[in-house]
Write a structure and sequence with these properties.
Strand content: under 5%
Helix content: over 70%
Radius of gyration: 21 Å
Number of strands: 0
Distance between the termini: 25 Å
Length: about 425
Amino acid sequence: MGINKLFFKYVSLNVLGMVGISLYILADTFFIAQALGSNGIASLNLSIPAYGVINGIGLMLGLGGASRYSILSAQKKIKTAQKVYAQSLIFGVIIGGVFLVFGLFGSGLIARSLGANNETLVSTSIYLQTILFFSPFFILNNTLQSFVRNDGDPSLAMSGMMIGSFLNILLDYIFIFPLDMGMFGAALATCIAPISSIAVLSIHFKRAINQLKFVFQKLNWIVLKDICYLGATGFINEIASAVVLFLFNTIIFSLEGNLGLAAYGIVANISFVVLSLFTGVAQGAQPLLSDSYGKRDLSKIKHVLTLSIITALVISATVYLTTLLFKSGIIAAFNSDQSTHVAEMAATGLIVYFVGFFFAGINTISTTYFSATDQPRFALFFSLLRGGVIIIPIVLLFSYLWGMNGVWMSYVAAEAIVVLWIVIKMNPRKRIRQAK
């Protein structure tokens, strides 16, 4: 199969899978908005940073472990590759267990620390406790998806994501409305999704194509350090997003209260959907990049990188045009209280904030490229720039100068600065030579 067909096969399957995840994120937001109103959306938004940390651990182990697995497999170092696979799973389950304990005994404290007030504390605590309790499944699901995809089964990885996502949407409706389970129902539906996805992914182990062999073993800190270092970009991106979301929540609450959080909840949740599409493109390209790197096929690396960036830009343009045409309907779907003030703030946010997608797509592809081709230092550097080093001072300054408009503009400015840094500092040909 030619590289173009192979690229679009992997990317389309991953984007489809991420579309499924995106739909259940939107379903969560929509059903919570309809059942619990602005305070429900605010509580969901306050809980997202904790979910981001859990998701980040899974992405780190999945991206780092699967990238190293593909590189070693391409070099015919099969036993070492299998060790990387086993270490990733074992460590993921252990970390998930730690989060589970935090969920059982500390959800209220975590909710307070994330900014919940008397109006949102109970619902935020319920959502957090449920998500944290099921965190081992979230981490294991993310890790397995990456390994199954890199083991030559992207269709099954996509199927796992899609089935989990659509089951979540169905259960969201059943738990929230007919069963009247409120915030707990929304969280429980979300937590059942990775369990069903893992069940689908387990089919891979019965197929002839399967090369993944799990052997229980003690933790090897040298192997784990390599996995985490190579996959740190995924973790840092999620952690940085969580930190930025927390900071945005704090600033917006000080400016506009719970109505401001509700408006930001609309923008942030739709933004999460779009960013997941960029992640789908990056994860689809990653196995091809890692395999080409292992075989030292530098022309193919450059070609896949170019296709990835073009695809991300097309997605950005499509999303932005759609938002301009249908922003009123989009906002109305999540503004069940019909608050004029929430609608006005969200409308401005969608128009301004979403300009940042044109830059965010390029940045997501770039950091994944560095990880996939065994250049974790660059991946870490640009992830740190994106996630906190640049945006934190910018949002503090812009919000002081221009209020809510400044908050929206800060995201665009930060992503644009990182793109400029990549263009100025990193010559593409030089980067490919460094991958030798």
